[in-house]
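My current task is to audit a protein record that another person submitted. Alongside the sequence sits a line of tokens, each denoting a local backbone shape. Please read both lines and tell me whether the tokens look consistent with the sequence. Do not assume that whoever made the record got everything right. Thanks in advance; the entry in question is below.
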Amino acid sequence: MVEVVRSYGAAVVLAPQRFDGLGGPEASARILNSAHTIILHAVPEPEPIVKAAGTRMATEWSLQQERGLSTDVGSTRSQHQLRVDPNEVRRPAPGMCFVIGDCKGQKVQIAPPPRHDAPPAGQDVLAPPEPVPEEPEPEGPIRL
């Protein structure tokens, strides 16, 4: 259904709580592959979703040790790493999410809503608004 709706240029918003909430494994994979943008909040098993962001090449290094002491022998290699770390998805800070699309992933901090101070004690929160004085009618013709 998602593919058909998108072919007409319409947008679809799906908001499952889990990846398998999209349907079975085949349906979930089809929907994920049809999605243009994914907004990912904390989930316990993010691996199938973070793969949509792809990988990047990163240099990893290692250092040889013998009996707990460094031998000063090490190595480096280029390795594919996921662009979105599944462990960060499992434990994001409040207001944090990941936006995935076009084989890219970006961590995003959502701004909290503005906080309003509590009304002063004894003031009615739902009091009617104060009347606005009427403006006098202009004299003569109105020029636009």
